[in-house]
Please model this.
Amino acid sequence: MMEENIQNIAKKIVEDGKGILAADESTNTIKKRFDSIKVESNEKTRCNYRDTLFSTPNISKYISGVILFEETFFQKNLDNQLLKKKLENIECYPGIKIDQGLEEMSENTIETYTKGIETLNERLQPFVENGAKFTKWRAVINIGKDIPTDSCIKKNSLLLADYALVSQKNKLVPIVEPEVIMEGSHNLDTCYEITKRTLDEVFESLSKKNVDLKGMLLKPNMIVPGKESKEDLDAKKISEKTLDCLIKTVPKEVPGIVFLSGGLDSINATMLLNEINKINKSPWKLSFSYGRALQEDALKMWAGKNENKDTVQNTFLHRAKMNSLACHGKWNASLENE
Ligand code: 13P
Model:
């Protein structure tokens, strides 16, 4: 058997049209998701919901890794089985969201940096000891009047590089996530310009710290207009601009780029990934690490009821399969009615 090291784990995660399920919503975020379907969020409901997703038959045909929140990593289901173990049993890598959320840069701004670097090495240990294979750290870059500032981009890039290095020293693949967020009335060209500025800075920091680029994955946003902008989603322009931005900023050593969905609905997230892969001639595998876009349909079907399990799993499997086809550029809208 091939030895497992960060370089071949990173490669394997994005192989064969597979991608990542981001199921690492913090307690606050999952509460918001459950509020939307009028289900109370408590340890038991969170466990039932995630257990239902992870138990989906054949899911590892399309999903190679799952990002977990701390609670889930050590959680057992009603049959006293560790959820993490269930993933391992189907050869799906368990990963851990290891940042500690966002803190405002200063009093009068919405700009943030990501917390948790000081205690990172120590906090990683229980996950290393219990078989985590990768980690995630999310930085947020807002677009607005006079923002982002250079200092915000710089600080978040340095933190991402520090995080990536500490992860790799612990033999974990870092998923470096600098998210330029969709909220705002900016147009697509502004998203391009800010994402390019951010990725340039991120890779400068990563290379200064000697992060092993072959042993990491990048999790960026696609280049899209802001949610409140009047611009339509133009698939051709989005795919061209996204690829152009990545080609200008991401070194070829990086084995894979796994997009976040960032508030795109599930069909658009699949359709855009497909468009990007149709024209992709780049050296990287371009795949997905979606949270909302993989889960929103399944979450609605679940509605807090275990008797909906089969429908939830069929819905989730379908979404994962559609995104896997999109990794090969082989998705089309008619497949949605399968
Ligand atoms: P979305 O796909 O819902 O943006 O979530 C991905 C993620 O992991 C955010 O950190």
Observations:
- The longest helix spans residues 188-208.
- DSSP finds twelve helices and ten strands in the chain.
